[in-house]
Amino acid sequence: MSAKKTRRPAASGRRRLLALCLVGAAVVVALAYRFSRTDRNAQPLPPDALRGSNVLLVTIDTLRADRVGVYGSTAGLTPTIDAFAREGLRFDRAYAHVPLTLPSHAALMTADYPPRNGVRDNGTFRLDASAQTLALRLQATGYRTGAFLGAFVLDARFGLNRGFDRYDDRMRGGGSEIEIAERRGEQVLTPAADWILGEQSAGPARQPFFVWVHLYDPHEPYSPPEPFRSRYSGAPYDGEVAYADAALGGFLGRLRSAGALDRTLIVIASDHGESLGDHGERTHGLFAYEATLRVPLVMWSAGRIRPGVFAPTMRLVDVAPTILDLVAAAPLTGVDGRSIRPFVAGERPYDDPGSYFEALNANLTRSWAPLTGLLREHLKLIDLPVPELYDLSSDPRESTNLYARAPEAARDLKRRLDAVTRAAPAARSNARIDADAEMRLRSLGYVVGAASKRPRTFTVADDPKRLVHLNAALDEADAAWSMGDANRAIALVEAAIKERADFTLAYDRLAHMLAASGRRGDAVAVLEEALRGGHADTPLLRSLGTLLADAGDAKRAASVLEPLVAQDPSDLASADALGRTYARLGRTADAETLFKRVLTASPNAVATWNNLGALYMVANRSADAADALRQGLAINPDSAIAHNSLGVAYARLGKIDLAVAEWRRALELRPGFPDAEFNLERAGK
User: Fold this and answer.
1) I need a surface site. Which of 133, 320, 346, 581 has the fewest CB within 10 A?
2) Helix (H), strand (E) counts: the chain
């Protein structure tokens, strides 16, 4: 006869979660100590374990942790990362703070959360010149410093270049009228290896290097090269991950063969993950669930870092302090991050300070509720009009919202979250976005929003969870547009605006589709509707002014653009648009002043150099036009239009041989280019 079971009263949600919290904390501390004592013969981690070592930081954009073999994937995508993880220190629960490239890297490099470092979104913000960074600290310690970037979103204009002796952010592509916005991993890694090996042979024998390489390949659009395209035809994201890992393997193999890894600390991390449909999000930036916040993180140094796994939470803001601690460089002071070394070494029991995160893009570009949150131990709070609380230890896919059942646990995390945001200063620097920058960000899928929004109260109707279907509608519209179905694409965006009148991003998308379809008048009407409804931010007003000028109403265009230029001197894209409008109005001197203002602030603004050249051509200042066009071609030598225009300037100056060479180059870049063909025919060539 079985014993009779007695039923106890059900514990409250608060008490159940409190017990879970305490058990989780005990497990975390135990894991930290167990890890630190695994191999008594391995090298310990004293404060100067890697004093004077080289530092190689590899960040792989948009890499989900669960696509990496040592994090559970069985697909065999990442043999390079897996090998270094098995030989080094793997952080099992590493977290980003923003699911976007620029703000996530800013947090990593400064050891400060976004509210403190001021970089909250791609394109709109710039790291302030007063910020201390990992590169600056290592440069001051005597390191040679170089960075090699895979995408324009990390261009020097956004502020991460400070402290680097070389900052290779130039993207080149054949026949493009603007510089391309991204480059493949091999195009990043080859110059990085050349620089490391060249500097190693030419520089002082004991001067170490700090090199940061950034691989953008797993980012959308997923288009891996062969053989990865064919091998992963049904899973192109996986193909991009596999390609990035293979390219990294070749790079590290080259360095190892040259002896450049003998005394080098390698750190491999991702800036954020990718949703791939989880929680209804196709890519990243809207939500902050595990798919986009949890990232792979590995540290390796042959014979100096013991192999193992660190189980407690590691934050990207902890990476820079840990590196500086390991190489015995001066620490960053007063920052949100901390060195994790003492916990790995077992010198102190691990305590979890919590990990702040945010996703503000939907607020800045769509006027939806801003998302912030805090992760501590196994509990995660997402602060939205419909708040969320998850126990990641039992619910890693975040499918059961415990917020209503565990109010005390939620309040504790909310107090901690508020403490992070209250402690942060209101420092912010706006990025200087010229016309080229805006086009290149747009080609990466980023529409630059306003740097801030007017304060307002958000309701349940503004919660991104309630609006994710509108995001999906824009994705579907983009897919229809790319397939040539303009009518369906336009209808989908129009329906999204009808449902959500303040959907600023949708107005932008619709206006661009209409204008590209030859319906400029309808595009203007869409933006005027947004303006009348109070939904037009600076980017929309800039688009309205540009469309009005293109439609022939330059006078009204100027009236829209002039206030934008007057209120924000850093708004270079509006200054360039107003300069083009003044040129149409015959206000040559005013246009020249604006173009030169843009070029003073952004000397690599190719489109503005070309606009200035065109202005001089109309004013019959052929020598000045040739000089401006040459300046633009020095930055982007692959512009067929600029080569053709330079040929015309040379012809006016009587330099026919030079003119013919430019027209022929234009045809090489763009076969069948009618203007260049006409000019060669007139020249008898």
Assistant:
1) 346
2) 27, 15
